[in-house]
Design goal:
By secondary structure, the protein is mainly β. It has a single domain (16-113), classed as Jelly Rolls. Helix content is 0%, strand content 58%. Strands 1, 2, 3, 4, 5, 6, 7, 8 and 9 form a 9-stranded antiparallel β-sheet that branches. It is globular. The chain starts with 15 loop residues before the first strand and ends in a 7-residue tail after the last strand.
Length: 120
């Protein structure tokens, strides 16, 4: 069966749950629920939801996301915090390090792209 040319991203079907690594949690007990809709060589998209908590993040990949509901605060190390609410979008570049805090249970849709490996 050929792959569809159009993919609708909804929080449907089987979901995965998880938490940030214990050593990165700064406050609370954040629990992730993720509905992955596409996964192939370095590309993922879907819907992610998380309960309140605060933890350290470090990105090796690109991520585009749009906040669907809730409130989160993202702080890059050495920069002022950025508050995100429903309708806000952001791009996180590889090399980003900081803190993600979910103030009110947050749901976002996302696209993640890993950088291409170096040739050879």
């Amino acid at each position: 069966m050929p792959e569809p040319d159009l993919l609708r991203i909804l929080p449907e079907g089987p979901a995965e749950t998880g938490r940030p690594p214990a050593g990165r949690v700064l406050a609370g007990d954040p629990v992730f629920t993720t509905w992955n809709h596409e996964a192939r060589a370095g590309l993922w998209c879907g819907v992610w939801e998380c309960t309140p908590g605060r933890w350290r993040v470090a990105y090796d990949e690109w991520e585009y996301c749009r906040i669907l509901s809730g409130v989160s605060v993202v702080t890059r190390d050495g920069s002022p915090p950025v508050t995100l609410r429903a309708g806000d979008s952001l791009v996180i570049r590889p090399g980003f390090a900081g803190v993600w805090e979910v103030v009110e249970t947050t749901r976002k849709d996302y696209v993640i792209l890993e950088p291409a490996p170096p040739p050879g």
